[in-house]
Amino acid sequence: MTEQNGFSNAKRAEVLTEALPYICRYRGRVVVVKYGGNAMINPQLKEQVMKDIVLLWLVGVRVVLVHGGGPEINELMEKLGKQPEFVDGLRVTDRETVDIVQMVLAGKVNKTLVSMLETAGGCAIGLSGMDGRLIEVKQKSEKLGFVGSITKINIQPVLDLLEKGYIPVISTVGCDDAGNAYNINGDTAAAWIAGALQAERLILMTDVAGILRDSHDPKTLIPKLTVSEAKQLQQEQVISGGMIPKVECCIQAIHQGVKKVIIMDGRVPHSILMELLTDEGAGTMILEEREDA
Fold first, then answer.
1. Which of 46, 51, 246, 260 is catalytic?
2. pLDDT by residue (tens digit) across 42-69?
3. Residues of the chain by 3-state class (helix, strand, coil), percent to 5
4. Is 34 a catalytic residue?
5. Range list of β-strands (E), 9-134
6. Residue 89 annotated to the active site
7. How many C-beta atoms lie closer than 10 Å to residue 63's C-beta?
8. Would residue 143 show up in a list of annotated catalytic residues for this protein?
9. With contact defined as beta carbons under 8 Å apart, do 168 and 64 qualify?
């Protein structure tokens, strides 16, 4: 058969050869993907994202997957009769809630993603931030309870897995000096981990197209920003609301040595592949200074 779904075999071959320079660029390089939002809720989209990650791994990209799981945490809390509560976008986490967070993130969600990557043909191993004291934290504030502010990343367990050819899958649960579990903002954890790895790219998958000049108009997407330009847009309140902490995580990652950070819409099929393996890219790229991407 020379054509499937209106896409000829010749065109498929052409697409693959066009991706070759990008495969060469990223082969052997570390790319950290923060995964969450609606891309994680939709079963078909979740399966597609896992396949995309396996494809990148198979062509030699050293992918690290950092994930959240807010909707799943909310679902279990409600089943147990607890009402989720948030302050400034962060989950208020008492002792019972942090146990739920640990069960959902380090247990159900993490192992489900590992299984899906394995089913798609990859080799993956799941970690929480408590394993090997990967993510060390201190309490962010008393009013938030067991919500952690990162103090240190012990990256060696991740490096060991990458060296052995695995896809590390990391849940954002950290621990303090006494070994207590803490809930951590997923974007913040991904930024710190990417910085510790000196990653080529950090990709934050979100529920919006990227940074927009007009938050109500996807056509106003800003494809590329320097750190200084992003700070200026914050002052002008073009970057506002929930996008502010996300952009601050991007800037932090760049200051820690990440080459470029992408904020993209994880609801768009194959957005990761479009960003890494095509001229078009996806979402908004933030980098230190203007240069050819």
1. 246
2. 888 899 999 999 999 999 999 999 998 8
3. 45, 25, 30
4. yes
5. 30-35, 62-67, 86-87, 90-91, 124-128
6. no
7. 28
8. no
9. yes
